[in-house]
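Technical annex B. To support the medicinal chemistry partners, we prepared a structural model of the target in complex with malonyl-coenzyme A, based solely on the information shown next.
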Amino acid sequence: MEELQLIAQARSHGSAVAIRSGVDEWSYAELLDRSTDLASALLADGDDLSEARIAYLVPAGFDYAAVQWAIWRAGGVAVPLSLSATEPELEYSLTDSQSSCVVVAANFAEKVSGLCERLNLRQLVVEEVAASCGETASLPVVTSDRRAMILYTSGTTSKPKGVVTTHANIEAQIGSLIEAWKWESADCIPLFLPLHHIHGIINILSCGLWIGATVEMFSRFEMTVILARVVERAYSVFMAVPTIYLKLIQTLDAMSESERDQIVEAFSEMRLMVSGSAALPASVHEKWFALTGQKLLERYGMTEIGMGLSNPYDGERRPGAVGQPLPSVEVRLKSDGDDVVGGEDESGEIQVRGPGVFLEYWDRPAITEESFDDGWFRTGDVAVRETGYYRIMGRQSVDIIKSGGYKLSALEIESACLDHPAICEAAVVGLPDDTWGEVVALAAVLSDGGELSLESLREWCQDRLSKYRIPSRLVVVEKLPRNAMGKVTKPAVCDLF
Ligand code: MLC
Ligand code: AMP
């Protein structure tokens, strides 16, 4: 039987430990078995999900991986939902993706049962399938050109867009990183990043499981537990966003020397430590090196392209730079004047081509078309090349904010804030922040007689926006700064803070 390559490989990893979580561990064989049961339950009486969108709300752990594989093996498109999403955010992902079913862990069932009823969606509880010993269905042949996953990304539109990748895209993204970063089956990596974004899903979980390594899963970044495991030499590879390296440095700085020495020595022995999803300040790169002797490998990526640029595994890892194109990735810089630039120190938009680049934005053909320039994906990020190394200069859009590695849309947050009864005009910007990279700040004009404090705004946002999207700074103004065309000038809004 022809199988997806990921599944065929898993068979050869057999009894090796695939997933660890707390004191529990599961082999590749167990992962295959559980995903077969779940795939059979998903298929019910059918023989192929034929790219039906299957959403899932499952915390990090064995079942998360089993559900993802089950959807793929049954021929569906996996739509991972954010565990921290509010009900309106979940409803948007479910309706936009036209999902037909939500697979849910028992302790999250309540969070979606009302929605499933209202939207008339099938709900499948993982634990119930596991306990039911239903019949094993024969699974369909899924060719790699078929759609595999939709990840929601916030950007220059007020609502998040679904980024569709095929199995072939995902295989190319994984293959590129396995080669560049020399993944091996003896590797063990902690996974504490959210599992509705590419960093956690592809770079850590999928690369680890592809090669036969062990992925140790955490529901969040549990600093104390993870540091204890580091000291036990549990991991050979570590991947995180810059905010986490900053938090680690702050924690290590506050420790006694003997406690710190134990931990930094353990970090120094790791095979590879990677930073990405947001700019790693050169000062943090240098501080981490001074502390641990590890040169962080900084790389650049995006939901739509997988990983694009990376400092070398062997060779100079340059602070403040993101290196060179990864295997199978082509990168070019395009100037404002629409020229491909090749000279030293000439800046331009990063454009990417290659087998890892996504297929389309779900149900948005016009936006998909605009996002490509003659077959090259337009990232909206601006870079220069300096002695062979790309360096990110910034973004073309002022409406994109990166906070703690999460990409946020200022427009989406503004639109939510405008529903607040006291707010009649809203401008959201990202303010530079040492720990988070950027923090979300709101400048608001209030309606007559309206009152607003940061505290009351944050409370009001709780049911509407994920925690990391809620503004943490507020300024109330008489009017917003606008240009001659009446458009809000975001740099002037930043100056208000
Ligand atoms: C948490 N908080 C944030 C935040 N995350 N504030 C701003 N921005 C964020 N990203 C707030 C919480 O609301 C809370 O506020 C306080 O900080 C502490 O929360 P916490 O949950 O205890 O923090 P912590 O667990 O330490 O979370 C920090 C973090 C997390 C860095 C682990 O933000 C995270 O997992 N970020 C990674 C996101 C990611 O995977 N991005 C990759 C996208 S893919 P209060 O008021 O309640 O105290 C991509 C492509 C690529 O970018 O290249 O990889
Ligand atoms: P996302 O859309 O969530 O996948 O985030 C992708 C964006 O993160 C990119 O377009 C960049 O703006 C940013 N990004 C990722 N890695 C880096 C990096 N190493 N340096 C600077 N920005 C980065």
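Notes passed to the chemistry partners:
The CA atoms of residues 218 and 225 lie 9 Å apart.
The first helix runs from residue 5 to 13.
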